[in-house]
Amino acid sequence: MGYRLPPIPESRLSLFSQRLAYAAVSMMVVAVLAVRAGKADPLVGIVVVTGAVVLAAAAIAIGAVAGLEIWRFGYRGLGRAFWAMVVASLLLAYPAMLAARALRLPVLNDITTDLDDPPVFSSSRIALAARGGYLPPDVDRRRRSAQERAYPAIKAIMIDAEPEEAFQQVAKAIKTLKWRVIEEIRPDDRRGLGRIDAIDESRLMRLQDDITIRLRAQGGITRVDVRSASRVGRHDLGANATRIERLAQEIANPSDEK
């Protein structure tokens, strides 16, 4: 009788790494879909996503240990550990980019073009109902000083037009950007004051951010000040500054609508 070699055992760590990676993917997908569908609170979704990130990081670490174990003892499962690490790394790519951005930018979630006199969000019954009763809080001027250093390009938008015409340009830009207008007050003839309150949603988890826009006549031009605030989290990762810049660009260079 010929001698048969015993079967080569498979690394348990590689199997564990694979299960962690797949669990992380499942958690991430469920959290995003649940928040987007309105079935879960955004804060709960963020907690679940954070848990998925932790599992993905653990999958990479355990996969690396499994690779060393396989190299040392000749176990099977190298392919399983490798693909688990690939899947986990892909899952971590976007959170890693956000983490790098968070380290680079100040901890702010409310950005405005007027640091000394920020536009005030409407507290009317209609506006509060649209925001589910939420009113973005005021921000101390000392906290806003970090904005000057991080976002020096965020300035008031000056439109060479009378308030009514400027109002139309701003309204058109908001429509192009697909923000949801919840209240608007057209400029009056006496003071040339106007206001638009709107809501924008993030692409991935549809987190809602609030925007208020104030128009004021200044001679023959109209000054447009914008304030954009995030509802969730203390750090907006630059989203509000980007939103204001997009509005300014759309007003200056309107997109062709067909």
What do these coordinates show?
This protein has 258 residues and is an alpha+beta fold. The chain has two domains: 12-104; 110-252, Kinase associated domain 1, KA1 (TATA-Binding Protein), CATH 3.30.310.80. Helix content is 50%, strand content 16%. Strands 1, 2, 3, 4, 5 and 6 form a six-stranded antiparallel beta sheet that branches. The longest helix is centred in the N-terminal third of the chain and has 32 residues, at 42-73.
Give the SSE order as H and E letters. Answer: HHHEHHEHEEEEH
Overall shape: it is elongated
Number of strands: 6
Strand content: 15-25%
Largest sheet: 6 strands, antiparallel
How would you summarize what this structure contains?
This protein is of the alpha+beta class and 258 residues long.
Lay out the secondary structure:
Elements (H helix, E strand, L loop, with lengths): L11 H25 L5 H32 L4 H27 L5 E3 L12 H6 L10 H10 L6 E3 L3 H15 L2 E6 L8 E8 L6 E11 L2 E10 L8 H14 L6
Antiparallel strand pairs: 1-6, 2-6, 3-4, 4-5, 5-6
Helix pairs in contact: 1-2, 1-3, 2-3, 6-7
